[in-house]
Specification:
This protein has 577 residues and is of the alpha+beta class. It contains 13 helices and 25 strands. Strands 2, 3, 8, 9, 10, 11, 17 and 18 form an eight-stranded mixed β-sheet that branches. Strands 6-5-13-14-15-12-16-19 form an eight-stranded mixed β-sheet, with helices on one face. The chain is globular. The two termini are 21 Å apart. The N terminus and C terminus are likely disordered.
């Protein structure tokens, strides 16, 4: 089992900390190909954006042999996605990348949006990005505002797994033991074939893989044609005292790109973009009296899509990120949803490849992630339309001579930006989550203390919305963040293994070698009640940090751990521990 090194002192340590043991799979249980020819790679990753690169790093942590191909000749030079939310930063912390990513991002005060008539005017509305602008007790990390072209190099450097730029997937054919992909190397002009056990398609909203498999999509489709103009200009006078990650104006959206400078302007694509005078358009959008001339560096035209694929899994091919769901950019949810896809999927691929999971475990990927994608899409589409309507209405008011800011229904309400329920409150309901048995009623965990709310345990409904997040140790939910020791969170106990958290580790130690990678770690007794556990109860955490099973007490008779892991992973019939 591989554990990543780290440039983040609070990330998962290389050596197991005192207080738990690591159980490695028993010899002879690793999957082979049963006499079939060995594949060139175990997983072919198509697409070198943040989702594909995250999957590459996660699979490397499991020792999975991958090849990543990207049809472009290099990483994207465009800033694109802007926000890394709290949950994604938790995943990057697990990979040992959180400190590096934060060091090149904007400081927390940029975790805010502002509404203005022009960039040079005063705010007529503003809202904080919860979990970005300041630490929150529900997580050991803080999200950041950064640009995708700053994130991708950090992800690329996380592992030396093979990566080929300028290589495009042209076709794929599935056989009994894997997938054969035809690849075109644009630099050399030749075609090659690669055989992989599985294909992970993270090749964007216009996914070649999705089209080859004839997988349809559901949703409104194209919402808008948008142009991004990357430019340089000295706007310090108007923005330094009121920093923000996003400035919405009646004449388009302005984004600071890097702490050291650079800007992007997003606006509806004009009818004849090839004849547009982009420096003049940007200068005009800045507002009268700007007295600056924008130096345009790059222009990109694109369509804001909104859809979810009809299925995420077909045979040995799995879709992730924009290939599986195109989420409008408003709210910064798209990239983060894709990173969570990879986190959910990679441990399941590792299980299928190493023999400790049955084929049904991969089926749970779509079962768990498609509802999240639909829920995220609904919220993003609603708020995108509100934003577009608000900007259009304000433009009409200004054309009519109304220079006094009027109250407009804003998409960026405080309630909308308090979207931790959507980010941290995801609940999975699949065969990879064991139904509750013998637990206390769901308890609200207070992250700062781990204590129960006044009055003791109370039944906690699953949050169907995206705004409120109440930490709970209910199966299917993300494990609540609780500090076990200084700098070591319950979320730091997960990695390329299953984790059993219990106040009584000795009672739960497996009696024989486990076919699953497993660590047993002590949960301080003061957190037991908060997590719905008795003195010898336990939580079984999946490698993605979601709770796979919970026991109020250690059941009498047959030890339950082997049976629970067998059920969660869909592996062979249980054996006695």
């Amino acid at each position: 089992m591989t554990v990543h090194g780290s440039d983040d002192p609070a990330a998962t340590p290389v050596r197991p900390p005192h207080g738990h043991r690591t159980h490695r799979p028993a010899p002879g249980r690793a999957a082979g190909t049963g006499g079939a020819p060995s594949p060139d790679v175990e997983v072919l990753i198509v697409g070198g954006g943040p989702v594909g690169l995250t999957a590459r790093a996660l699979l490397d942590g499991w020792g999975v042999r991958t090849l990543l191909i990207e049809r472009h000749g290099e990483l994207s030079p465009f800033p694109r996605s802007r926000l890394i939310n709290t949950r994604s930063m938790e995943i990057f912390r697990q990979l040992g990348l959180a400190a590096r990513i934060s060091s090149r991002a904007f400081p927390p005060e940029f975790g805010r949006v502002r509404f203005r008539d022009t960039l040079l005017d005063h705010d007529f509305a503003t809202a904080a990005m919860v979990g970005i602008n300041a630490p929150i007790p529900e997580s050991p990390v803080v999200g950041v505002v950064t640009s995708q072209d700053r994130l991708e190099p950090a992800l690329l450097a996380a592992t030396d797994a093979e990566t080929r730029f300028g290589v495009e997937l042209m076709d794929l054919a599935e056989g009994a033991d894997g997938v054969t992909a035809t690849l075109l190397d644009h630099r050399r002009g030749d075609e090659t074939r690669v055989h992989a056990r599985y294909v992970l398609a993270a090749d964007g909203a216009h996914s070649t893989v999705r089209r080859r498999l004839a997988i349809g999509t559901q949703g409104p489709g194209v919402l808008a044609a948008v142009t991004t103009v990357v430019f340089d200009a000295d706007l310090t006078r108007w923005c330094a005292g009121q920093p923000a990650g996003v400035y919405f104006t009646a004449h388009g959206t302005f984004l600071p790109l890097y702490p050291e400078g650079g800007w992007a302007w997003l606006a509806p694509t004009p009818d004849a973009p090839e004849r547009a005078d982009w420096p003049a358009l940007v200068t005009r959008a800045l507002g009268p009296g700007a007295e600056v001339r924008a130096e345009v560096l790059r222009v990109q035209h694109w369509r804001m899509n909104a859809f979810v694929a009809e299925r995420f899994h077909q045979g040995r091919v799995l879709l992730a990120g924009d290939a599986a769901h195109a989420i409008p950019i408003i709210g910064g949810l798209g990239l983060n949803t894709g990173v969570a896809d990879a986190h959910n999927l990679c441990w399941k691929l590792a299980g299928a490849l190493r023999g400790w999971a049955g084929p049904g475990l991969l089926e749970s990927y779509g079962t768990e992630r498609r509802p999240v994608a639909h829920r995220t899409l609904r919220q993003a589409v609603t708020n995108t339309r509100l934003m577009l309507d608000a900007q259009s209405l304000r433009r009409e008011q200004l054309r009519a001579g109304d220079t006094t800011p009027t109250t407009i229904e804003l998409p960026w309400s405080e309630q909308y930006f308090a979207q931790l329920g959507l980010v941290l409150g995801v609940t999975y309901d699949s065969t990879a989550v064991r139904p509750e048995s013998g637990a206390l009623p769901d308890s609200t965990v207070r992250p700062e203390s781990g204590a129960l709310p006044e009055g003791g345990a109370g039944l906690l409904p699953r949050d169907p919305g995206g705004t409120d997040y109440v930490p709970t140790a209910e199966p299917g939910r993300r494990m609540p963040h609780l500090w076990l020791t200084a700098g070591h969170s319950t979320l730091d106990t997960v990695g390329a293994w299953f984790t059993l958290l219990t106040p009584d580790p000795a009672r739960w130690e497996p009696r024989s070698a486990s076919p699953w990678p497993l660590r047993v770690e002590r949960l301080p007794g003061e957190y037991g009640d908060a997590c719905g556990l008795g003195p010898d109860g336990a939580l079984l955490l999946r490698p993605d940090g979601h709770i796979g099973a919970r026991w109020r007490d250690h059941p009498p008779g047959v030890p339950p751990l082997h049976g629970a892991l067998t059920a969660l992973t869909g592996s062979a019939a249980p054996r006695r521990e």
